[in-house]
Fold this protein.
Amino acid sequence: MPPPKDVVKIAIQMVGAIPQLIELQQTKPLASVLKDVCDAWSLPNAERYALQYVDGRQTYITESNRGEIKNGSILRLTTSPDQEAERLYSGIQSNNSDVKTDSLKKLASLSQDVTFAQEFINRNGLKQIFYIVEEGNDTGEMLAHTLKAFMELMEHDFVSWETLSAAFIKKIVSYVNMNAVDASVQQLSLSILENMVPTSRLLFELVKKEVTLDRLLTHLQVTNAQLQLKAMALLIALLLAATDAERRDIMDYLREKNIRQFIHKNIIHSSEPLGDEMAHYLYVLQSVSLNLCERRMRTSMDPYSQEQRELLQSLRQTAFESESEAPGSNFSTERRRSLCAKEFRKLGFMNNSNPAEDLRRAPPGLLALDNMVYFSRHTPNAYSRFVLENSSREDKHECPFARSSIQLTLILCEILHVGEPCSETAQAFYPMFFGQDHFFEELFCICIQLVNKTWKEMRATQEDFDKVLQVVREQITRTLSLKPTSLELFKTRVNALNYSEILKLRQTERLHQEETLAVPVLELRERLKPELLELIRQQRLLHLCEGTLFRKISSRRRQDKLWYCRLSPNHKVLHYGDVEEGVDSPPIESLPEKIPVADMKMLLMGKECPHTKEKSSGKQNKDVLELAFSIVYDVEEYCLNFIAPTRYEFCLWTDGLNVLLGKEMTSERMQTDLDVLLSMELKLRLLDLENISIPDTPPPVPKPPSNLNFCYDFSHAEQ
């Protein structure tokens, strides 16, 4: 007979004593349970003790979290959180440096527990930590433990970052700015400042003033990967908290210091593999940099602005040696205006009498004008060749430079997501972005010449304008998907992907689609599906058995805390637990927490998840919603909440969990994988039918013959 649902069988350990095996009644007050345990070991003062998990984060058991105790859990009888907090509060004030260091080390470990943290903070423990930092001169192990304890205590959000004293902040800043400091102290100091920056404008300004960009760049150039990562994290925090003007100033300064080239050479192409966290920061740096174009992209041209009119006129003057502006020319105003209009028409403006009207559409707004001017000034030969070549063609076949530039700028903004908020989890960046200053403008210069090349290959007329730009968009996106490492490589590849290549790719895709839509082929597809779906199910379960590293993301920031989850080889238990940075694939025995697959009730995704409802405000949570899923398990319906590192992992995990729950796989990745497998299998099956058209209906069965006397008689042949 199974035990009652409110009773769990557990083991309780104590140093120097034989463990107790008890049936814990969840309805019984925790104080009574502790008294029974203490009585069994003849321990007085049961109120001075508490239960704590042996494995994992060694969390204290309280009335609020006792429901999470599972059958088979191993607990430890230990000093109660208030007693431990009191002891460590005294220990960190000791004059004996060994006692003080040991107390701070234990404090850093225990502060991860919310119950202990509350007790320690209630005793004004943070004030003592401030005192150790502000008054101490130690820069080694003791200080590292102090800063680690401070970080863990602040993580629980009991105290606002805005309450920190100026003296404490300046001391933290000094550790970042000093050279002769332990690397672990500098890493922790950078993390503390990174957490402070988003909390208030005042703290942002203080950190920005005290920690110079030069100092951050110095930390970025060290060989210590963790220190490099923390410096990048603080730089990104400053960029995200800055106003548009401040952000522009910071990016201009970084450009002066050639930070992009350094990142391209020493981080992206480093001998060490790029971690997820650094990949995310590089994505944010790329996104922030590209979003500096947003203001110009959303600003329409003002026909009354002298500066903008001069930029527009410079395009005409660079392309044409105008007779109307030659020395000694006596053209009337009307004649001069007529000549200008003719030249603007040759430049490809739709409204040649008032070309500013073409730039009134925003986006791309003034960004298109900036790109055209950059192209004319930095590659004048290519610019003149483009304009003069097309102005000498027949009217129908000329490629309009201005119109193409405006549309191309809009296409590049859409492809590069200019003006969109940074994702909290994305890691996709273009390596070539960091190999080139003025990346957007240089990319435009390559692509506008591609437009002209493709226009000629297509023998296009004005009516084909949209078709040409569709082909160019396809050429750009296909080439970018290859992740070229430099603009030169991008230029080579995108030019190699000419119009005839695009036609071949389209034709291949179309033929594949047509042959897979024939009725007999569709029937064959349906027959093959069950077998291939089973193959996908096995792959998903295998992926869950290998496990994945997940990050804990708070509403304040991307956290460094990691946890790992994997399925047991027999597909019966999910194992999970916290892990340290750098651990790629922890053994299943090291993951203390377990959820039997039999206890899993349902899978929640996106907005349905409890951890997305808690922090569903803010425009940056859209990407988190797309990666969030939760497992509801046990009778009490607890939830294990996930935020997948990528959409790919999200699809594999949600599919795998649906398989364990006996449900259909629903992710878009499942459909993609199924299509790929079906396509491969069909091609193999239809290999002998190449170049043979498959009829929609089977050929008719011929009528039986009028007689069957055509059978050969072997007996006569033998005679």
Summary: Residues 298-320+336-509 form one domain.
